[in-house]
Amino acid sequence: MQQAEARYSDTVETARAYYNSDDADNFYFHVWGGEDIHIGLYEGPEDAIKDASARTVAFMAERIGHKLKPPGARLIDLGAGYGGAARWLAQRFGCRVLALNLSEAENARNRQMSRDQGVDSLIEVVDGSFEQIPAEHATFDAAWSQDAILHSGYRERVMTEMDRVLKPGGELVFTDPMQADDCPDGVLAPVLERIHLSSLGSFAFYREQARRLGWEEVEITDLTPQLVTHYGRVAEVLRAEREALAGRVSDGYIERMLQGLQHWVDAGRNGYLAWGVMHFRKPA
Asked: Quick check: is 151 in a domain?
């Protein structure tokens, strides 16, 4: 498969430049969870980020594992990051995975870890944006995304693209940091300014997109308290590891990240944010 043309929306290009930076790459790889850089499922506030992140992957996989078991099954991971979920799914089910991601720095780590773990024959890592997926119509049995769609300025387009590349009867499962359905105007400004976004999705938004595309809502699991726990835990680990990160992550980046994480925690505690696992099915 050819690499996608590097023609991204301004919002996606901003995210690409950010995740390609040395500061961000080293922070997410060494602090946020290594192979996984998404919100975790915590059994206790002291859980390791890596363990909590692995629980999220397992929880989501329970929803669509039946689509990945048949021989030749194919999955697309949209915003695959370092590819932890792609490798877990390939190892568990033997499915083929297209790991689509905008950061060349993350993709280089993904390719290397996939080789090291012996699953590179099952995982194709592609530099590109989910606003214009480099795949033919009706290619995949399932679609997967973790905390990535927020970075698009055209989320409706992303959902349409997911629909386009899914086979009839295909299923999609994803998470996204979102605003609450009843979030007051203006209160998320500190969060949005920090991540260079003008808005977030919501459960209501994604349900509306599903209706527009004719998808069946299989299950939506509201796990919003986990968002608050996760961002708080990342901030705690960042403070503890600050000295060890010297020379890898700049002090200015760490200060800005700690402020940004606190904005997420505060907004979540105030009931302005939402997070959960969304599972839909395309008509057969």
From this structure: yes
* CA–CA gap between residue 25 and residue 31 (Å, rounded): 10
Residues 6+ positions from 41 with CB-CB distance below 8 Å: 52, 55, 56, 59, 223, 226
CATH number of the domain to which 52 belongs: 3.40.50.150
Instruction: Give residue 45's identity as a one-letter amino acid code.
Output: P
User: Is residue 192 included in any domain, yes or no?
Assistant: no
Number of domains in the chain: 1
| 187 occurs within a structural domain | no
Whether 205 is in a domain gets the answer yes
Phi, psi (degrees; rounded to nearest 5) at 276: 180, 180
Task: Note down pLDDT in tens along the chain; length 284 residues.
Answer: 434 444 567 777 777 777 777 887 888 887 776 788 899 999 998 899 999 999 999 999 999 999 999 999 999 999 999 999 999 999 999 999 999 998 898 999 999 999 999 999 999 999 999 999 999 999 999 999 999 999 998 999 999 999 999 999 999 999 999 999 999 999 999 999 988 899 999 999 999 999 999 999 999 999 999 999 999 999 999 999 999 999 999 999 999 999 999 999 999 999 999 999 999 999 99
Please give the model's pTM, rounded to 2 decimal places: 0.92
Q: Which of 197, 224, 198 is nearest to 278 (CA)?
A: 224
The Cα-based distances of 41 to 45, 75, 108, 230 in angstroms read 10, 23, 27, 8
Q: How far is CA 65 from CA 35, 73, 76, 172, in A?
A: 20, 10, 13, 11
CB-side exposure of 176: number of CA atoms within 13 Å?
28
Q: Are 224 and 277 within 8 A, CB to CB?
A: no
Q: How far is CA 129 from CA 132, 149, 202, 278, in A?
A: 6, 10, 21, 21
Range of the domain at 152: 10-21+34-180+198-223+275-281
